[in-house]
Automatic annotation (TrEMBL):
This is F-box/kelch-repeat protein At1g51550-like. Pfam families: F-box-like, Kelch_KLHDC2_KLHL20_DRC7. It comes from Durio zibethinus. PANTHER family: BACTERIOOPSIN TRANSCRIPTIONAL ACTIVATOR (PTHR46175). Transmembrane segments: none annotated.
Amino acid sequence: MAESSTTAGTSNFNNGSLIDNLAPDDLFAILLLLPIESILSFAMTCKKFRFLASSNSLWESICRRDWGTTAVDALKSSCHGDEDHRLLPWIRLYKQVSRLDLVCCYKLSDPDPDLMLPSPRASHSLNFVSGCLVLFGGGCEGGRHLDDTWAAYIGNNSRRMLKWQKIHSGIPSGRFGHTCVVIENYLVLFGGINDRGDRHSDTWVGQVAFHESLGISLSWRLLDVGSIAPTPRGAHAACCISNRKMVIHGGIGPDGVRLGDTWVVELSENLRFGTWHEIVIHPSPPARSGHSLTRIAETQTILFGGRGLGYEVLNDVWLLDMSEGYSKWAQIFYELQSIPAGVSLPRVGHSATFILGGRLLIHGGEDSQRHRKDDFWILDISAISLERVQPARLSSKRLLANMWRRLKAKGYKSKSRSFHQACVDNSGRYLYVYGGMVDGLPQPAEGAGLRFDGDLFLVELVLQL
């Protein structure tokens, strides 16, 4: 009897009656719980399941699951020619992002020569907030700091010819080597250096608004943080993390010594007050400046590169996890020799941006001989969980070799640069790069030939929709 029941159950399963009785919405819900490899395997079982597992609505939901709602909605909004956004080929888009090996660059310049443009600079800040690019401060020729703020509205048209607008706010004071991150729809700025060599430890909150008739407005206010704040510094790294928090690491302190400390500020609900506290844990990244710190998840950030205490240029990767009430730094070890062209990875003054598909795009920087770079690298740490990252070693060298991949670039040939800035739009598809130090023709009075750049160019990460 038991045998016949088992046979009957197997027969029903083979006839497909159990899964056939599930509604398509229920099947979609189940498929969204599976990894991509399992979904593709499910699609190969029969024609009916191939149709279900290849549906555009399912793959839009998968993109939302893996890329976030903000990125998907921004991608849909950017397709002005499609009134029916369901026509977006989500499965093809997902595959293209997963296999990203090429970017296309375009120089963005205003066709009207009478309009004012930001002056060339480096070690400034550049952010995408409220549909606008916002540029503040930086350093220029002669070691002078800048105190100007510029903004350009982009909205959903990421390929538009930009019109910069100068914002007259008067604050914060002029500086370079500061950091500025986006929290919700606000800018949070910390630290920096002025042309007298003074380091700052002030924290500012900026609110950006765009009006069709009035243009762009930006209002700053000094954040009240009480008596506890990090050591004044510049050339540090920062990013937002979790809800209304910003983390900073390293930089150059008042005595010119490179720092290795980690601090977090938590902003109040009205973003008028903040509380700083230092994270003291071991192991932690060595002291450095000119490195990058990039948020990759709600409570995780990646630190890469920079210049160390001995003036050496670094290529180490560290993961900071601040989940569940504890904090942990863990180094991700890899071998440069196992990565094609990996010997060029060590760098300082680069940009590291979280892009569509959940990976980091590394661009530019300079090596220990101050040779500036124009290359693009993908750092893919999606397959490495924090639990597997130990201070000693990782088990899979092959996995670590696949973390890094150099991308090809076509279109506009940008100058090799360092200490530029880069940011992405809400979709994560378009990267904006501005300024930096570039190599120039040496003048009789200067042997180094150093000059500052004022180009803004666009890097398109997904070429066709």
